[in-house]
Each structure stands twice: as C-alpha cells, then as structure tokens.
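Record 1 of the preview.
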Amino acid sequence: MARELHRLSTRGIESTIKKGTEGYGAHNDGGGLTLVIDKFGARWLFKFTSPVTGKRREMGLGTLATVSLADAREKASEGRGLIAKGLDPLIERDRTAAEALRDSVTFEQCANDTRDILSKKWTFAGAVDQWDRIVKELGDLRSMSVKDIRGVDIAKVLSVFDDRPSSKKVALSVIRRTMETAVASELREDNPAMTSRVSRLTSLDYKRGHHPSMPYADVPAFVGFLRSKKSRSARALELLILTGTRKDEVAGMTLAELDLDKCLWTIPEDITKQRREHVVPLTHRAVEILRQQLETINRAAKAANARSRDRAATPDYVWGNGRHARLSHNAFVHLIPEGATVHGFRSSLREYLGDETTVSWNTAEEVIGHKVGNETAKAYRRVSGITKRRAALQYWADFIEGNLNETANKVDKTSAAQGIEEQAA
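->
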C-alpha cells in the first residue's frame, strides 16, 4: 500500500524535468496526488471524487518550486482524510479562506467600503467628509474585526458623543450601515447596531419623527422677516419656501438648470432624493428673486474683471460668491426660528395645499417632488403636470403675499385626468 501511494521520488522528478519536453505530462504519485509538468513548469494537483457532489474535481496544491514532494503528500493525505469524513476538500478550503477573511476585515475597512457604496446616491456635497470625520472618532472600534464587534463595544464608543446628541445619532447610523454591509458580505450573521439592541445600552433617544414644520398660517409673516434681510441666504430660503424644494437642491442650484424665460427650474436626477429629474415651475416672485441674484453675480463678475487682467468666468452656481461656489450646508440655520426646520417648509406647503385648496392629492405630492401614480397616470402627467403644479405653486405664492387668487381655487377641480389621478392616488 505504501508503494502504491509513493510512486514518485525527488531524484526521479529531477531526472524527468531534465528531459525537457519528453518529461511533459501527468505523473501520478498515488492516492490522487499528481505532478503535472508542461511548458509552464511543474505543479501539484490533488484529484478526487467529491463525496458531496459525486463529481471528479481537481485541487491545486502549489508549484514544485514552492511545495516539496513531502509537503504535497501531506496535503494530499489531509484531503483524503476530509473525504473519509464525507467532506469536499475544495469546499472546506474555501470555507477556511472565508473564515480568514472574516477575521481580517476591520470595521474601518468595512466603513470605507460602505461609504463608497452609499456615496453614489448621496446628494449632500459634505456627506463623505462627515462620514470620514465620524469614523475617525470611533476609537478602538476602527481596528476591531467586524466579526467580533458586539453591542457593548458599540455602546462604549458611542459614549464619546454623549455631549453631542446629533453627532451621536449620526455615529450610530454610520455604525449600523457599516454592519449592514458586513452582514450582506457574509462577514458576520447579525447586526449588533440595531436600535433594539443598542437602545438598551445607551441613553440615546432613537425615536425618529418628522421634520418640525412651521404652521402654514405663520409662513407669510416669516417671509416678511426674510425680506427685511439683505443676505443671499435669506433670498435663497424664500425661494426654497416658494418652490417646496430641498435645501441641497437650492444651495447647489446652477445657471444651467434655469430657464427663466419659460419660468422653469430643472433639477438633475443626480441631485434629487428620488433620483429622477424634477422640473419646478417658477412663480412670478421666484423668477424675480432669481433675476435679482443673477444681476448680483454678474455685477460681481464685472467688478472682478475691472480689477484684474484675467477675465473672470461667470460663476456656475446661482448662489455663489467670491469665496464659495455654493451656499454652505448651514446657510439657513441662523434664519430659522426655534421649533421649525428648513425641510419642514415642504410640509407647510403640502399641508396648505391639502387644507385650503382643491388641488388634487397627486398634484400636491408632485409639487414637492414625490413619486405618485401608475405608469398610465405618469405618462399623462408628463404633459399636464407642469401646468397644474405651476398653478398650485402660484396659489401658495399668492397666499404668502396675502393676495388670494380666486381663480387658483379652481385648480384641478375639473381635471380631464381626474379619473386616472384618483385611481393612481
């Protein structure tokens, strides 16, 4: 039996290799161990029938230059031992490699991978930097294997943010999403950062509510306050209120998105939260605000050209100035009263249209950029939707101005698409 297993010898192998092409071929050592010699060199194979699938398989054991005859025999012996237990050596090797991978991937590596995946859908320009800043503050968690992280480890690192509740919530979100990636990548089986687990170990309030909004009856007075300010932030916030758009959409508005002759603002799909192009009809006051802002940036460009030999290009961003290309993420913070949020003005608009007008549910949802309707309704509204949204937004603008427009009260009241709209709602 020993002779059947050990048919090759080190001296015999060396002699065979010296023969050149005459030595090419498969040389069987017995027990499934084979040395293959060809123009690419000499390498070991272990050939066997899988006890799992019943199929013939080959497993590479390495080259002759790196694996000696004795080592190759030992590896083949281990393979036969696994087969005797009903295991497939290739499957077991892959499982071992996967376990080694699970042990080696750290939280920081997984967090970076998660950031790269999620950032493709992020619209806030500073989101990547915010993510990286949070990860850097996670201390020992960064170097831990994602496989070994427990709820107590997360609670411990979150305590660093006890005096910063907002950052604490962001930190938990970063950890939770990173661990979701680890689970999806089969680096572990569960997510220890789930709210139900962490809430028992920290004092963090995990309840998530809607963005606090200003009652729509108070919005006209607030807009009056904004008009008393001379800053571009105040003008931009008024535009946001009039259009029902999001903060980042206004802050990053570019000249290319505007067609003031047609009173339209087209927000690209890579900017909107819904990841689809959103066309915003502009009211008279919205156009007025934008024309004033464009005059301001054009005057600034002319002044810069007068002071320099190099002609300054017209800024791409509507709200840019000499120092910043776009409005900062916190540009509106100092203008918002306690109990309200920037995002909440979308709710103010939506509630006004629902409570005080006969604007249809579909149109009101489309005004604030929400997806509505089935494919039939969507096809129809590509033609009619802009006109209806324009009327709805003008009604909102008239309300803010304190000049209710009776004709706007008829918006959607006798819509030819009413049947389709009600079905889609």
